[in-house]
Write a structure and sequence with these properties.
The protein is α/β, with parallel strands linked by helices. Helices cover 43% and strands 17% of the residues. It binds pyridoxal-5'-phosphate (PLP).
Length: 406
């Protein structure tokens, strides 16, 4: 079943998509990355691995996730709107797809421990889940500020048996967590596996994570054809690092009539640096976190401060393949503000009975905009996650506006 998700020609064997990608790391670490790349090349053709993964996707994650035709929104906004329900996966988002795959790979390589950073805790919880299942230790680094803010996810990680290490320096958020996790990883890169959470980082991660997520589009292409009798005219996904977007898009890449849109967070103000995280719309090419892509830079060329109401989207760079696809013109880039995302969060909840993650609500918001244009045809949204994690925040900050008495 899962064999055809692994056949995209790019990147080249050094991890380049055109001029983007690569791995700007010290030689000793390069050796380790080369080992991961070569193990990956082996396992992606190994029927045992593919069967094991297919079995877990089906019986553990709950795949295939359904496609839902949102009839009320379709009627209200004027185009046929469908959603790929990644929010229904075990742990509530698409991240389990690649976390499980990375855990299996690490296990096959004889690694003992998975290590990663997390911002809001979503990647940490998905990875701790995969580690528990596969039987590996798990250590998650998280900024002290985020630990306080996202406490329920910290509790989940503890229950799942993971160790949560607070990053206590600087602003004590995601960037510091990356530093902290990377430092811990460097202390022993032989028995530990750094499980990157999106299509970013050094080669082979952008390729590997994309391939592991591609199951989303493989399923969707077939399901949609069965439901609607043809391919969708438009695909829409939100982008932080870009894994759920490439997960949906990859199977459609050669279908020239299928338009693709990725939606970046415009935050509070697209014209002020530090108030958004629209890397494609406002960024420029550069090297950050050891790979070349588009990035938001400050005056010194350092990663700029970024902001979004969706903590899964506030990243100052973007997956290397997205940079390539942007220059190629294959994918369209749009942005959605905090307020528009919250509006879509309530629209989807109240019209269809689905509470989306605020990240996914960005994709929904853009779909509702697009739907109002003439002759857009059908729209398929990747609903990357569910909104349980966001409800307290949304009600506290926006409840009154949307008629909720506290
Ligand atoms: C983490 C996350 C994202 C952003 O990550 P990508 O790699 O861009 O997909 C989007 N949606 C949800 C629900 C997430 O948890």
């Amino acid at each position: 079943m899962a064999t055809n998700i692994f056949n995209c020609p790019l990147p080249d064997n050094k991890g380049y998509f055109g001029e983007y990608g690569g791995s700007f790391i010290p030689p000793e670490l390069q050796t380790i990355m080369d080992e991961i790349a070569s193990s990956y090349e082996d396992i992606r053709k190994d029927p045992d691995f593919l069967n094991e993964l297919a079995d877990l996707y089906q019986h553990y994650v709950g795949r295939p996730s359904p496609i839902f035709h949102a009839k009320h929104l379709s009627q209200k906004y004027g185009a046929a709107i469908y959603m790929k329900r990644e929010d229904l996966n075990h742990t509530g988002a698409h991240k389990i797809n690649h976390c499980l795959s990375e855990a299996l790979l690490a296990k096959k390589m004889g690694k003992k421990k998975l290590i990663a950073e997390t911002g809001a805790g979503q990647h940490g919880v998905a990875l701790a889940t995969a580690a528990a299942l596969v039987g590996l230790e798990c250590e998650i680094h998280m900024g002290e500020v985020d630990i306080e803010k996202e406490y329920p996810n910290v509790v989940r990680m503890h229950i799942l048996g993971a160790k949560v290490v607070p990053a206590t320096h600087g602003r004590k958020t995601l960037k510091e967590a990356v530093d902290s996790a990377f430092g811990a990883y460097l202390a022993d890169p032989v028995t530990q596996f750094f499980a990157i959470g999106s299509v970013v980082g050094p080669h082979p991660f952008p390729k590997m994570v994309r391939d592991f997520q591609s199951i989303v589009g493989v399923e969707a292409r077939e399901q949609f054809q069965q439901m609607a009798g043809k391919l969708p005219d438009n695909l829409i996904a939100c982008v932080g690092g870009g894994s759920n977007a490439l997960g949906l898009f990859t199977a459609f890449m050669n279908d020239e009539d299928v338009n693709m849109y990725v939606v970046e967070p415009a935050g509070r103000n697209l014209d002020v640096i530090g108030e958004h995280a629209a890397t494609m719309t406002k960024g420029t090419p550069g090297v950050m976190h050891v790979f070349k892509s588009y990035m938001l830079q400050d005056k010194e060329g350092e990663p700029a401060e970024v902001y979004s109401i969706a903590s899964g989207l506030d990243y100052p760079s973007v997956g290397t393949q997205h940079a390539y696809l942007k220059d190629l013109g294959r994918v369209n880039y749009a942005s959605i503000s905090d307020d528009e995302a919250i509006d879509a969060f309530f629209e989807l909840s109240r019209e269809e009975g689905i509470i989306p993650a605020i990240e996914s609500a960005h994709a929904v918001a853009y779909a509702l905009k697009l739907a109002k244009e003439p002759n857009v045809g059908t729209i398929l949204i990747n609903l990357s996650g569910r909104g349980d994690k966001d409800i307290d925040f949304v009600v506290e900050h926006y409840g009154k506006e949307y008629g909720i008495e506290s």
